[in-house]
Amino acid sequence: MRQFGICLETGDFIEKPDFVDQILGLVKDGIYDFAQLIVLADSYAGAGAIIREKMLDIRTVIHAPFYDVDMGNRDLPESNLGKLKDAQKFADLLYADIIIVHPGKGDGEEYLRETIRQFQLISDLRIAVENLPYNPHGRVLHGSSPENIKRIIDETECKFCFDLAHAICAANSLGRNVYDDFAQYNALRPSLYHLSDGDFSATVDHHLHLGFGNYDIAKILREFIPEDAMIVLETRHENATTADLWIKDMQCIKELELNEHF
Questions:
Q1: Of all helices (H) and strands (E), which one includes residue 81?
Q2: CA 92 – CA 213 distance, rounded (Å)
Q3: Alpha helices of 4-60 — where are they, by DSSP H?
Q4: Among 132, 155, 220, 250, which is most buried by a count of CB atoms within 10 Å?
Q5: pLDDT for the residue numbered 255
Q6: Considering the entire predicted model, what is its pTM?
Q7: 190 lies in which domain range?
Q8: What gap in Å lies between CA 96 and CA 89, rounded to an integer?
């Protein structure tokens, strides 16, 4: 049976406590099965205590900082590893067994090789690499093809978080077939999936709520996400003050899963 997760950032616990309570209430009420906590750099000191209080009894996966982390930059290993320590602290705090980490900027062997080296420096069995879009907002990235991700997994023995929207965007940028890439990513045996809606022809993902884009979510669920998968619905609405859209996301999922079996 698939398990679905809902997403929060560490900053939400300070800036939007009422919203956080609503979102976590969806997990406590069994509408969602677990939570993904996106860790902002240097947030443990300010948010650790309140997050422990609110999330200790909630199954959690951790997403490491990525806004100011570049694992492909040979000049930043000390800075990168320092920022990742907060993610490791939150994983320790909440007994999480997955810490998602992005590869870095730059396209080419030297950048991929540096990401592999820095992943090896982390030396944490909880680490899962996430595939990326190729050129979002003018920043060329690696980790944007099944071949890149396979290299990272093979050389670091890390886990894999398969972001379907990122794969769509990267395939569009690189002139690849989306569904062929999906199959190749799935062959890498993901530990976790990220799912959202979006524009199937775009090269930038926007983490739209289900039904707000034109992805064929029914086909994706039916053909590319196993029945026993863990799936984070990485959907968001920056100005949301209630959990209504996330309730509708799960209503959409349940309708699609029901139709899968008829």
A1: helix 77-94
A2: 36
A3: 12-15, 17-28, 44-55
A4: 132
A5: 95
A6: 0.96
A7: 3-260
A8: 10
Show Cβ contacts of residue 45 under 8 Å, excluding neighbours closer than 6 positions: none
Q: In the numeric block, which tokens belong to residue 18?
A: 């009422």
- The number of domains in the chain is 1
Which phi and psi angles does 244 have, rounded to 5°?
-55, -45
Q: State the number of CA atoms in the 13 A half-sphere of 193 facing the CB.
A: 23
pLDDT at 210: 97
Return the closest-CA partner of residue 33 out of 15, 71, 59: 59
- CA neighbours closer than 13 Å in the CB half-sphere of residue 169: 25
Q: Give the containing element (helix H, strand E) for 114.
A: helix 109-122
Supply the CATH number for residue 53's domain: 3.20.20.150
Give counts: helices (H), strands (E), the chain: 10, 8
Residues in the chain: 262
Task: Compute mean pLDDT per 10 residues along the chain, 262 residues long, and list them.
Answer: 97 95 97 98 95 96 94 95 96 98 95 97 96 91 98 98 98 98 98 98 96 97 96 89 96 90 59
Q: Which amino acid is at 42?
A: D
Q: Which two tokens stand for residue 91?
A: 């994983």
Give residue 34's pLDDT. 98
By three-state DSSP, how is residue 115 classified? helix
- Reference 127, options 148, 104, 100, 149; nearest CA is 100
Name residues whose C-beta falls within 8 Å of residue 64's C-beta, 6 or more positions apart in sequence: 39, 83, 84, 87, 99, 100, 101, 102
How many Cβ atoms sit within 10 Å of the Cβ of residue 194? 26
CA dihedral for 123, 150, 154, 97, sign (positive or negative): positive
